[in-house]
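Shipment paperwork, digital attachment
Item: protein structure file
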Amino acid sequence: MPSRRRSPALQYSPGSLPTDASARRAAQEFADLVGRVVNTTVSQCPISFHQVEGREFEGYVSHAEHKVPVPMPLENGRYLYLYQRLGLRRPERYLTTLEYKYQYQEAEDDESWVFRYEYQREPEEGYRYPLAHLHVNGALETYTADKPFPRLHLPTDRVTIESVVQHLVDEHEVACISPQNSQEVLRRSGEAFAEIQRRRLLDG
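Attachment content:
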């Protein structure tokens, strides 16, 4: 009888992080989770956490070269720029996403972008757009306002990397690196994120 293939373990379930050392471990575990999602599906590029020196604990998760976030090549020859800035918030010192940017591009050149999801938890004073939004680099004949269409902030809910990856696989012909595991990894990773958000809502 053939043995059943075991699903990859997804180890990420942080709570209160009383020290910077525990925050670094949790941030790296989160980067490992994002890396597992990406490396099982759309890109073989490494994903890592990079701490930013400062008075408060902060850092980012991305594919980086010389500690600078860069677009990563995908299995269909296109590129994805993935950036998540993390920090500690609330008295409990929960690790949370302060900002994200998921940008699909035709080439490494930033000007070749197709669409971009963005989120800012703590925007600068005077910011008047949706905290989570979508930009689309296109033009519509039916759109006649003065503001260029790509500069519109189209409102969205917060978007997960799992949903972006699923979109790339389903609609942009990105072949999965590990098709036998990809859907299970996406499902379990999405469930882990939903459970963390549920617990924090219960905590108030």
